[in-house]
């Protein structure tokens, strides 16, 4: 079984690309999302307890008992040291869940490819044995526009988020493949098909998919 990491900056379209990849051969392609994993971790009592110890009771809603993600985000993006503390808590746990999933899937006899969406793959500096790292990218101008229009963020919030991420130029140098996502969904699908066709090795049972004419 192969493992591909899909990474990229905020609002680049990573999730859409992952869904398209999986839809091409859903019976053979499995999907992992680090964002969904982190959301699940926030529900674990041990993680919530650790968050309170690190950042105070204000990061957990007293009524619902759930992690207040808005309060936590404001705290960590206003304090770089706090952001590192949070990453050091969550990222090892998220990679641990990914490793466990890969071990389970490798023995199921049907999964040929695991695609792992990890937005901060390069930023974490972690060594993970991926067969391929695909960068989904857009220009900085398009990225800022999408973050403000689709996520309702202010320009100040956008810059804080981008400052915490590796510059696009650095990611372009590191990536094994690049998907440029400033076109429509049809173009994104064609790129997904083309990558499956180009990268499949002779020993992989994934059927190559030709891009549509």
From TrEMBL:
The gene is coaE. GO terms for biological process: coenzyme A biosynthetic process. Keywords: ATP-binding, Coenzyme A biosynthesis, Cytoplasm, Kinase, Nucleotide-binding, Transferase. Catalyzes the phosphorylation of the 3'-hydroxyl group of dephosphocoenzyme A to form coenzyme A. One of its GO terms (cellular component) is cytoplasm. It is found in: Cytoplasm. Signal peptide: none annotated. Belongs to the CoaE family. Its main location: cytoplasm. Pfam families: CoaE. This is Dephospho-CoA kinase. Its EC number is 2.7.1.24. CDD domains: DPCK. HAMAP family: Dephospho_CoA_kinase. ATP binds at residues 11-16. One of its GO terms (molecular function) is ATP binding. Pathway: Cofactor biosynthesis; coenzyme A biosynthesis; CoA from (R)-pantothenate: step 5/5. It comes from the Bacteria. It catalyses: 3'-dephospho-CoA + ATP = ADP + CoA + H(+).
